[in-house]
Amino acid sequence: MAPAPGLNTIGMLLAHIAIAEVYWTQVGPLGMATFESESVIGIGGDDDGMPLAAGGSPAAPLMGRELAYFDDLLARARAHTKHALAGLTDADLEREISRPGPGGTVKGVVNLRWILYHMVEHEAGHYGQINLLRHQHRISAGGG
Amino acid sequence: MAPPLKTLLETPPGYRSETVARFMWQLDEQRRALLDDTRGLSAPDLEWQPAPGMNSIGMLLAHIAYAENHLVQVGLERKASSDTRIAIGISEAEEGLPLAPGAPPSPALAGRDLAWFDGLLERARAYTRAVALRLTDEDLGREVHRTRPDGTQRVFNPGWVLYHMIEHEAGHHGQIKLLRHLRKVVGPWAAARS
Predict the structure, then answer these.
(1) DSSP secondary structure of chain A
(2) What string of DSSP letters covers B14-81?
(3) Are B177 and A129 an interchain contact pair (Cβ–Cβ within 8 Å)?
(4) Could you give phi then psi for residue A16, rounded to 5 degrees?
(5) Cβ contacts (< 8 Å) between A114 and chain B: which residues?
(6) Could you read off the pLDDT of B115-168 as tens digits, one per residue?
(7) Strands B6-7 and A106-111, how do they pair?
């Protein structure tokens, strides 16, 4: 449940964390030219429904899903990441990666070290939001 | 066409440990993003709560500064307790977290403008940097055994402290972004339903 139309749900944020982790692992350590999450975690890159349009409803592919479903997305994304990182050396961390943009353009250049940092800050930021949404839900349900 | 934007995690010079230097790069990058996302906030924006008992953006900014300085004093300098009021100008009681159910924002922060919160963050980071410059690789693994004010024992190492400072600021930064969005979306939405 979202606090208001146009706001992300906890489920959407959990799915987004898993999808983004697969994206950065494929673009970075695995050096893949295109991103594909369906074969890794079972949902496509747009199935988190983010960014949600103003006044939009929660992502349809996630409706009615239990916590175990989201736990599984996260576990599969992390297993994929660990597998990709296992062989990296210190020297690999300096490797520069061109992020593919639309129509063969380059969105930007990052190094592998930055990708690992960004994976931490990205998950931490959305985890903070999940905590806030839980608190807000408790208050609107009459709790503290 | 402009060249692509480069975002490279680098190793700033001047630190005794390259690992510590890179932690500081990450903390500074996180701070740059936090400051970007808070420009233009007014004192009423900083005091706004989605509901009584919920943190305001101002409280979260003060908490980030307080927690950073507290963690550095007890976690990196190994002090038995911290005095953040002397170091950066705010205490744990004044930042107001955790807020009691139904409570208004911390009264110590009432009417403070963005420049005041920027000052807290800046002083906390200057303190952190001065301590971090002296840390060695060996220091990162040395365990700290701490007895908390409630008597519980806590064991950690400075490497974890630096990691935790990044995830802590990133988590509250995420909440600040959500609060900005909530103020825009839920404020008018809730008013229309009432």
Answers:
(1) --SSTTS--HHHHHHHHHHHHHHHHHHTTT--SS---HHHHSS-TTTT--SPPTTPPPPGGGTT--HHHHHHHHHHHHHHHHHHHTT--TGGGG-EEEEE-GGG-EEEEEEHHHHHHHHHHHHHHHHHHHHHHHHHHHHHTT--
(2) T-S-HHHHHHHHHHHHHHHHHHHHHTT--HHHHH--SSTTS--HHHHHHHHHHHHHHHIIIIIS--SS
(3) yes
(4) -65, -40
(5) 7-9
(6) 999 999 999 999 999 999 999 999 999 999 998 888 999 999 999 999 999 999
(7) parallel
- Name every chain A residue with its beta carbon within 8 A of the beta carbon of B163: 120
Q: From the list B26, B53, B178, which residue is nearest A117 (CB)?
A: B26
SS3 B147: strand
A111 close to B (CB below 8 A): yes
Q: Do B189 and A125 touch (CB under 8 A)?
A: no
State the ipTM, two decimals. 0.94
With CB atoms and an 8 Å threshold, state whether A7 touches B182. Answer: yes
A114 touches chain B (CB under 8 A): yes
Q: What is the DSSP letter of B2?
A: P
For residue B22, list chain A residues with Cβ-Cβ distance below 8 A: 113
Helix, strand or coil for residue B165?
helix
Q: In sequence order, what are the beta bridge partners of A109?
A: A98, B6
